[in-house]
Amino acid sequence: MLVVGVTGGIGSGKTTVTDLFAAQGIEIVDADVIARSIFDSTSATGQQALAAVAAKFGPQALLADGELDRAWLRQHIFTHPEAKQWLNELTHPLIRQQILEQLAQASSPYVILSAPLLVENRLTQLCDRVLVVDVDEHHQRQRTLTRDQVNASQVDAIMAAQASRTERLAAADNVIDNNGEPAALTKQVERLHELYLRLALAKADNN
Fold it and tell me: Which residues bind ATP per the record (predicted)?
C-alpha cells in the first residue's frame, strides 16, 4: 500500500490537514496518538513503560493515580537533554512497532502516517511520499501560543527541538501552504488526494 508521511512543525495545522484526508475516507496512523498510548496503564506495555519512567525519574514523574505526569515530564526533558535521549530510547522502538502494525492493517486506497517528528526520527523510511504542511515561523508561533496557552519561551524551545522549516521542506515530495485561511486547505488536499489515488493504483499495478 502507498504510505504518505505527513509532517509539519508545531502549530502548522497538520491535524487539520489529516482530518481533511480522513474525510476522504483515508486511514490515518497518528504517531502522536500511538506515543501517548505507550504509557497506557491498562496495557502490559504501558505498565512496563510507566515502571521504567518511575524507576528513572522517581515518583514525581507519575500522577497520584499512577498515570504519567506528562506536563512534568515534558518540562523535565526540555531542560535535561540526557533525559530526553533516555526517554527516546525507551519509547521509539515501541512506537515504531505500533506504527508498522497499524500501517499493515490499513485498508483504504492509501494510508497516511502523521508524525510531527517524521524527519527527525527517520520515519520517512517507511513512506513512499512525504507531505509537509508548511507555515512561516511567525504564524507557527502565534497559532501555538493561542491554541496551547503556553508561554513564548516554551514555544521557542519546542520549535528549536524540531527540524527546521528548511530541513522539513528538503524532505518533501509535496507541500501544503497553510499560511492563509483554513478554507484554502480544502482544495490543496483534494488535489493531492487525487494524486495519491493515482500513485496508489500505479503501485498496486506494479506489484
Answer: 11-16
| pTM, to two decimals | 0.84
DSSP class of 122:
T
The per-residue pLDDT for 22 is 98
Identify whether the C-beta of residue 78 lies closer than 8 Å to the C-beta of residue 157.
yes
Residues 44-62 have a mean pLDDT of 93
In the sheet where 27-30 sits, what is the strand order?
A: 27-30, 110-114, 2-7, 129-134, 174-177
> Cβ distance 100 to 1 under 8 Å?
no
Residue ranges for the binding site for ATP?
Answer: 11-16
DSSP notation for 6-74: EE--TTS-HHHHHHHHHHTT-EEEEHHHHHHHTT-TTSHHHHHHHHHHHHHH-GGGB-TTSSB-HHHHH
Binding site: what residues are annotated? Answer: 11-16
1-26+108-207: CATH class: alpha beta
Looking at residues 114-139, what average pLDDT do you find? 90
